[in-house]
Task: inverse folding
């Protein structure tokens, strides 16, 4: 690992800079801006780069350009990025906390819990305020996460992988309840819920951008603060306790943060599978670093991943839009398989 | 088997069979217009032309009840064989990727090759089920520690998720072709015609007969590979036959009803509680109990939210997933 130590204040403050990680994160940011531009340009009303920038700066070449960019493409792309970052961070936190490389909000039922609540609200109480969605989704997925954790803990140990299996079972159960609700519901509402369930960024607007940003302001700093306990927990509970970390509290706090991120993301765009699984591993491949830097890289990777998935989904077979969730699943499963092939039955990160 | 046991088993078998017949008649009598059981019986044994209820029973309702019985029996026997041969309590056509493979192949076969003829459906389903099974097995065996229940389920989930994503995209791109398949995809006995069933029927029969024939050797295999070999069982041959039977049964069931999750998991476990570990009993009892189970589930699917109907597959999953969770807790 190439590191340089920056020292200041006569050696009292030292900052170690992993060069490669910094370079990679700059590269990812550039790529994200590239995808953003590209995505703003592409569609049934194509624009060139100059026109896009002019529109963003308030000097639009035409009214149509303003509408297309500001009302449709820009919020949608932003949501894709934010949601990607959220799911990726959520997956990373779950993987660290459960010390299980296969943890992912959609694999362990957290996404499905959020989805069930949102579908239930859409179908049974359509009048309920739109802003209640993320909060209710958070409640739903928290219940599911708690259920799975309680159910998978046992005296015999070996919880890590049991946790995943339990999640697969719980996810199946919850999905079936969701489907039953869909059959029961009014057809129009059911159709709208159905599109959302495939994990689609396609109908989002500035409302979603707003609530996602609010969540980000509260949760992301908490996450960065969690980097310290995370790096200790990674070596096992005993080590963490020895280092003076309140493991139990840190654990539950992190799980709640992870669930909050996943639930907000799901409430906005529906369950996007495998992002939380893939992004942390890709980030680790791109650059080795400490936990804090790894979280940054993970967030950026997730954003890029979902941004690209959404772009591919709407450009590949235009005018038909493939929901981003299907694209992320197609990318994610091969990674999942690769991980199964490398994971020992009792594994650690 | 000693004499007492044989008598017990025989009595139990006939009792269960009676239960299935009752469920079958009940299934037919329930509907938008309730038809008394007596009339149902009459319509089956001595049908009269021109009697409206008899026509409803024979043309509209009976096919569906027959589908339910066949599918339930096929999936349960497939699950029992898989659990026995792989000695994996969590084996089941749905969990281990066979259903996903079969569904995928049917969708792709119809969408890309335009094979609308119902004769091809079971064939495509069988090819898909085989590919799904082999894929899941290969991935799990390549994992460190080999094909344990754990790696098998994980790779089953991976293969299932992947195929599901591709088939959903295929459906989105070609919505007209698949309008009729929406319901089928969630596992449902509605809207399938007798033609499809008749094409699947030989597959059902072949699979069930194969399962009964190898039941004795499967009992030995369930005790362990070495034990089985020591008892003179050609383990490789039995495994191949079992795989064939499982694939054929799953394919037939999927072509008729789409993916009905967890039936093959639940029934063999319940049956084992009562009849023990002899597959000569487990296989026939699974067939009977599974037939009754899916029939009753299908009644529930139609009645609970009437006039709206829930897909049968949704109900089997709701009932089966808790069993899966319990098994993970108890056996792994």
Result:
């Amino acid at each position: 690992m190439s590191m340089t130590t920056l020292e200041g204040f006569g050696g009292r403050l030292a900052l170690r800079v992993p060069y490669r990680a910094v370079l990679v994160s700059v590269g990812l940011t550039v790529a994200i801006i590239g995808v953003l531009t590209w995505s703003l340009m592409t569609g049934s009303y194509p624009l060139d780069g100059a026109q896009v920038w002019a529109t963003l700066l308030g000097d639009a070449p035409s009214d149509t350009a303003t509408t297309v960019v500001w009302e449709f493409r820009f919020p949608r792309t932003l949501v894709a990025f934010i949601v990607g970052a959220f799911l990726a961070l959520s997956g990373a936190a779950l993987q660290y906390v459960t010390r299980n490389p296969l943890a992912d909000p959609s694999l362990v039922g957290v996404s499905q819990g959020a989805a069930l609540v949102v579908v239930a609200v859409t179908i049974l109480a359509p009048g309920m305020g739109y802003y209640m969605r993320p909060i209710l989704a958070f409640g739903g997925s928290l219940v599911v996460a708690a259920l799975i954790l309680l159910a998978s803990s046992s005296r015999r140990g070996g919880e890590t992988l049991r946790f995943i299996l339990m999640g697969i079972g719980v996810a199946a159960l919850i999905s079936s309840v969701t489907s039953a609700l869909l059959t029961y519901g009014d057809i129009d509402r059911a159709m709208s819920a159905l599109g959302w369930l495939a994990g689609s960024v396609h109908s989002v607007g500035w409302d979603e951008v707003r609530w996602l940003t609010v969540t980000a302001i509260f949760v992301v700093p908490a996450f960065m603060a969690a980097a310290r306990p995370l790096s200790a927990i990674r070596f096992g509970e005993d080590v963490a306790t020895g280092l003076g970390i309140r493991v139990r509290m840190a654990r539950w706090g992190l799980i709640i943060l992870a669930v909050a991120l996943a639930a907000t993301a799901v409430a906005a765009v529906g369950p996007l599978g495998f992002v939380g699984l893939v992004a942390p591993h890709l980030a680790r491949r791109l650059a080795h670093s400490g936990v804090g830097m790894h979280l940054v890289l993970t967030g950026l990777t997730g954003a890029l991943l979902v941004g690209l998935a959404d772009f591919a989904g709407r450009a590949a077979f235009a005018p038909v839009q493939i929901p981003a969730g299907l694209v992320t699943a197609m990318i994610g499963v091969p990674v999942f398989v690769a991980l199964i092939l490398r994971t020992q039955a009792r594994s650690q990160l | 088997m000693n004499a007492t046991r044989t008598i017990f088993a025989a009595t139990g078998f006939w009792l269960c069979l009676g239960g299935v017949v009752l469920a079958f008649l009940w299934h037919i009598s329930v509907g938008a217009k309730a038809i008394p059981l007596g009339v149902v019986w009459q319509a089956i044994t001595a049908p009269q032309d021109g009697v409206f209820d008899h026509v409803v029973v024979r043309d509209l309702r009976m096919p569906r009840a027959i589908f339910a019985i066949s599918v339930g029996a096929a999936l349960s026997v497939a699950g029992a064989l898989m659990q026995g041969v792989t000695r994996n309590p969590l084996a089941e056509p749905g969990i281990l990727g066979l259903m996903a493979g079969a569904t995928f192949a049917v969708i792709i076969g119809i969408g890309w090759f335009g094979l609308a003829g119902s004769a091809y459906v079971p064939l495509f389903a069988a090819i898909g089920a085989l590919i799904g099974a082999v894929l899941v097995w290969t991935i799990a065996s390549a994992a460190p520690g080999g094909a344990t229940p754990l790696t098998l389920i994980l790779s089953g989930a991976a293969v299932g998720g992947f195929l599901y994503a591709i088939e959903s995209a295929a459906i989105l791109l070609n919505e007209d072709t698949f309008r009729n398949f929406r319901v089928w995809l969630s596992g449902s006995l509605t809207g399938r015609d007798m033609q499809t069933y008749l094409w699947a029927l030989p597959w059902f029969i072949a699979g069930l007969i194969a399962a009964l024939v190898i039941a004795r050797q499967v009992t030995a295999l369930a005790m362990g590979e070495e034990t089985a070999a020591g008892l003179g069982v050609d383990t490789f041959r039995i495994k191949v036959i079992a795989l064939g039977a499982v694939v054929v049964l799953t394919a037939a069931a999927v072509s008729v009803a789409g993916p009905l999750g967890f039936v093959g998991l639940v029934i063999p476990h319940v049956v084992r509680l009562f009849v023990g570990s002899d597959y000569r009993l487990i296989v026939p009892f699974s067939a009977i109990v599974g037939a009754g189970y899916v029939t009753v589930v299908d009644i529930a699917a139609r009645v609970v939210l009437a006039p709206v109907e829930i897909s049968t597959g949704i109900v089997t999953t709701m009932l089966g997933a808790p069993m899966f969770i319990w098994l993970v807790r108890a056996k792994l």
Summary: The mean pLDDT of chain B is 87.
